[in-house]
């Protein structure tokens, strides 16, 4: 059983203003809601862009302790194979400095460290380092506890920060990964520019994300499962239907594969590639910083 430990390293907290809830005066009709002045989407809801960060953080605070279970429900357990494919594509070598964004539970980080250790045993020199950055401190706590319980005591850093305002200097890392996190940022283009900023020339960008199914029959089945079964399962298993409803909606609002590839190219990444996984339920996007 994992014992909750305080985070040993100071973390730069990304601060978001909480949503204010002002109840109507007794006996009066509630005032109609004004449309957002600077709108963005939170699932299928339209919200103020400045509020989305705190709303997303609230979702992941709710599911932090059951994040892997969440991914099991959303992918049928196949997310483990997808993450393996992500590490295969990245191919981290000993000596690599990797930034894993939205990776609070440490799953990608530990896989990358294992791959670097294996390569080192095969004769390549130099240990690697993984910096895990996540918006939600609760997620980082889960990941750090997991790493300690499994004996990972070196080569890991934990930072609480925003993908759109990374607390790293320019050209600081050799590789950037983000798994199941890009769809939750308010401004995808800004997050991609930040990824390019912190990568060294020749650095690798790899994104794993739920995407848009490309097989018609599978799409119908997946839509039925996503919108009918998944929120009910989430409510039964975790007690939080709303979090799972948002997660399903956030997948549908995420750009299709070709559109995200175009965004990477527009940001300046070279050699952009897309690989569909399980008929497009998920996709890997990759590119190089030039």
Secondary structure blueprint with pairings:
Blueprint lengths: L38 E4 L2 E4 H15 L3 H9 L3 H12 L6 E5 L5 H15 L7 E6 L2 H13 L6 E5 L12 E7 L8 H11 E12 L5 H23 L2 H13 L3 H11 L2 E8 L4 E7 L2
Parallel strand pairs: 3-4, 3-6, 4-5, 6-7
Antiparallel strand pairs: 1-2, 7-9, 8-9
Helix pairs in contact: 7-8
Quick rundown:
By secondary structure, the protein is an alpha/beta fold.
Describe the protein's architecture and organization.
By secondary structure, the protein is of the alpha/beta class. It is built from nine helices and nine strands. The chain has a domain at about 65-215 and about 245-290: Rossmann fold (3-Layer(aba) Sandwich), CATH 3.40.50. It has helices spanning about 50-65, 65-75, 80-90, 105-120, 135-150, 190-200, 215-240, 240-255, 255-265, and strands at about 40, 45-50, 95-100, 130-135, 155-160, 175-180, 200-210, 270-275, 280-290. It has a seven-stranded mixed beta sheet, sandwiched between helices. A two-stranded antiparallel sheet has the order 1-2. Strand 8 and strand 9 (about 280-290) form a beta hairpin. It is globular, with a radius of gyration of 19 Å. Mean pLDDT is about 80; it is low at about 1-30.
Assigned CATH class of the domain at 64-214 and 243-288 = Alpha Beta
CATH superfamily grouping of the domain at 64-214 and 243-288: Vaccinia Virus protein VP39
Q: The biggest beta sheet, please? A: 7 strands, mixed
The secondary-structure element order is: EEHHHEHEHEEHEHHHEE
CATH architecture of the domain at 64-214 and 243-288: 3-Layer(aba) Sandwich
* Proportion in β-strands: 15-25%
Q: Number of DSSP helices? A: 9
Mean pLDDT over all positions: 82
Number of strands: 9
- How is the CATH topology of the domain at 64-214 and 243-288 named? Rossmann fold
Class of secondary structure makeup: alpha/beta
* Backbone shape: globular
Q: Alpha-carbon distance between the termini?
A: 45 Å
User: Over all CA atoms, what is the radius of gyration?
Assistant: 19 Å
- The helical percent reads 40-55%
- Unreliable stretches, pLDDT < 50, 5 or more residues? 1-32
**Strand order in space, largest sheet:** 5-4-3-6-7-9-8
């Amino acid at each position: 059983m994992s014992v909750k430990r305080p985070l040993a390293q100071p973390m730069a907290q990304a601060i978001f203003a909480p949503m204010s809830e002002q109840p109507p005066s007794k006996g009066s009709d509630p005032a109609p809601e004004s449309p957002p002045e600077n709108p963005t989407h939170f699932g299928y809801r339209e919200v103020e862009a400045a509020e989305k960060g705190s709303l997303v953080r609230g979702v992941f605070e709710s599911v932090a302790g059951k994040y892997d279970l969440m991914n099991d429900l959303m992918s049928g357990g196949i997310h483990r194979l997808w993450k393996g494919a992500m590490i295969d594509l990245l191919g981290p070598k000993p000596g690599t400095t990797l930034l894993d964004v939205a990776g609070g539970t440490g799953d990608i980080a530990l896989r990358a460290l294992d791959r670097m250790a294996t390569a080192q045993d095969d004769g390549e020199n130099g240990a690697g380092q993984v910096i895990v950055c996540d918006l939600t401190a609760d997620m980082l706590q889960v990941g750090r506890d997991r790493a300690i319980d499994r004996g990972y005591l070196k080569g890991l850093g934990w930072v609480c920060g925003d993908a759109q305002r990374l607390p790293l200097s320019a050209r600081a890392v050799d590789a950037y990964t983000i798994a199941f996190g890009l769809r939750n940022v308010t401004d995808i283009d800004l997050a991609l520019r930040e990824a390019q900023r912190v990568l060294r020339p020749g650095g690798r960008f790899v994104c794993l994300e739920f995407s848009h199914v490309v097989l018609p029959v599978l799409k119908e089945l997946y839509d039925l499962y996503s919108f009918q079964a998944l929120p009910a399962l989430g409510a039964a298993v975790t007690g939080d239907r709303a979090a799972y409803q948002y997660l399903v909606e956030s997948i549908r609002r995420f750009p299709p594969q070709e559109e995200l590839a175009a965004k990477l190219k527009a940001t300046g990444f070279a050699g952009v590639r897309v690989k569909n996984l399980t008929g497009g339920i998920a996709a890997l996007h990759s590119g190089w910083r030039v």
